[in-house]
Amino acid sequence: MDQFTVESVLNIIREFVPQDASISVADSEKYIYYQPSKQVDLGIKPGDLISEKTATYKALSVRKKIGVQVESNVFGVPYYGLSVPIMDEGNPLGAVTAILPSKQLILPTSFLTIKTDDHWIPLPYDEIMYLEAQNRKTKIQSERVNGFHKMNLSELEFILPNDLFIRVHRSYIVNINYIQEILPDFHSTFLLVMKDQSKIQVSQTYASQFRRALGF
User: Fold this and answer.
1) Which intervals hold domain HTH LytTR-type (predicted)?
2) Which of 67, 70, 82 is nearest to 20 (CA)?
3) Where are any strands of DSSP class E within the chain?
4) How far apart are alpha carbons 1 and 87 in whole angstroms?
5) Cβ-contact 95, 83 below 8 angstroms
6) What angle do CA 40, 41, 43 make, to 5 degrees?
7) Cα(159)–Cα(138) distance, rounded to whole angstroms?
8) CA distance 172 to 9
9) Which of 5, 118, 130, 164 could share a disulfide with 174, CB 3.0–4.6 Å?
10) Please, are residues 20 and 100 in contact by the beta-carbon 8 Å criterion?
11) CB-based contact 81:54 (threshold 8 Å)
12) Conformational region of residue 74, where left means phi above 0, alpha means psi within -120 to 50, and beta covers everything else
C-alpha cells in the first residue's frame, strides 16, 4: 500500500475503532504504520515482519475480521487485537488492527445487558434486531423490547458475532436474520426493510461489503 492508501484507511478506521486503541496498518508481510495509545503500546516499528501469533497475521490468514487475545510472549505485553483485512478481489492486501489492553471489551456471554427506563434486561444476541448509534450510546432494538447499552457502536461492532451482525451504516448494525427484504436505493446503495417494518439505509461506505457478506 502506498502512503495515500494508508492515510485513506486511517481516516476511515479512526471513526470506527475505540478511541483508546493503538492502531497498526500492515501489508501482506510487514507493518507499514503504527500509532500507539496511552493504554497499550506494543513497540511496533514500520518494517517489522508480521509474526504468526499476532491478530494481524490471523486476520490475513482467515481473510475476515477477527478478535483475538494475544499473550505476552509475542510483544512482551498481552493485548486484545481486533483486525480487519483489506481485500482486493478475494486476496488480502493488508490489514488494519485495533490494539486494546488485555481482556478489554471481551464479553464472555451471548447476550447484551441493556438499560430500559429504570431497570436492566439481558438480551440474547439472536433477539437483537438492530443497533443504532445515539448520543455516544447505542440503542438496542428487538421485537419485544428496546433499550441502551453503554458501549458505542464501534466497540460493539468488534464484539458481536460476524455470522449474525453486519454494519451497514455509520449509525447502524443489523442482525441479518431480521432483514425482511433488500430494496435498491439511490447511488448504488440499498434500503433494508426489517421484520418490524423499520427501514435502514445501507450507505455507500458499506454497500460493497454488504453485498459480499450476503452473496449477491
Assistant:
1) 112-216
2) 82
3) 22-27, 31-35, 66-70, 79-88, 91-101, 111-116, 119-124, 128-134, 137-142, 146-149, 165-169, 172-175, 179-184, 190-194, 199-202
4) 12
5) yes
6) 165
7) 13
8) 20
9) 130
10) yes
11) yes
12) alpha
